[in-house]
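Incident review: delayed structure delivery

Summary: a single-chain prediction request sat in the queue longer than the usual turnaround. Root cause was a stuck worker, restarted by the on-call engineer. No data loss occurred. The affected request and its eventual output are reproduced below so the record is complete for anyone auditing the incident later.

Affected input:
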Amino acid sequence: MKKELKIYLASPRGFCAGVKRAIEIVEKTIDKYGSPVYVRHEIVHNKQVVVELEKKGAIFVDELSEVKDTSRPVIFSAHGVPKSVPREAKLKNLSFVDATCPLVSKVHRESEQLNKNGYDILLIGHKNHPEVIGTMGQLPEGSIRLIETNRDAENLKTSDFKKPLAYITQTTLSVDDTEEIINILKKKFPKIKAPIKEDICYATTNRQNAVKKIASKCDMFFVLGSRNSSNSVRLVEVAKKAGCVNSQLMHSEKKIPFNQIDNSNIIGISSGASAPEKLVQDLLEGIKKGRKVSVEEVIVAEEKVVFKLPKELN
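Output delivered after worker restart:
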């Protein structure tokens, strides 16, 4: 007789509106212009998504210099790009479609506005993440200072800044960790200007809230997503912090740890904003082979956000 296992399924999980839009931009560009089309950087941070789009005719490159056929369109990834990238594309006469998530573009516009209004800008985020590179690349070098940790915030001196101070954040951070950094900044710089509407996006916040709601009840917690997906990695951290020490990222090379599942009575499952729902269903199917499973979906929010496609694809 199979042993019973309770599974809590976090909702919302998986694709957010920005990811859906980015994938659709690649598909529609292939439909409109034929293949191949070039994509600068992974369109979203998920290996399965990238492989599927390659099958349809997308060629992924790291830099525009790798584009072999300059008559083909180039798509910029959902994470956004520095200003230097569209400039280079124009110099090379490349036609391009920008799939930057509108919520990332909002942070870009914020940084430009703050700079124009004479602020020194702090960006809370992770070094070398494409989104951070894109945001810092909206302004001349040295205009934005990166803050990664509480310590970075504590080490700032009031004498470092001659102008009024403002902060912006990466859209895919841990809500709680970011709040800690913001509190340190506010203590140190009481007049620091915050974004009018917070920068961490609705999808990141909702997915983290759903994980928080169920993690403490679970013996194990799985987050489906890629190792280079910031929001997926944050979900694992959130699950651990919320009380499920055995929380794991299920990336494409990771095998299902059946021996650990066998010793569990309750497990939780979620997926990052760039992970296809098929991965969740495949994991459930795998687990069901060895256990009698009851699944309960725990919904913390309904997401109805839809982003329009760029006008050249409508």
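Verification: The domain at 4-15+202-299 is CATH 3.40.1010.20 (Cobalt-precorrin-4 Transmethylase; domain 1).
Action items: add queue-age alerting; document worker restart procedure.
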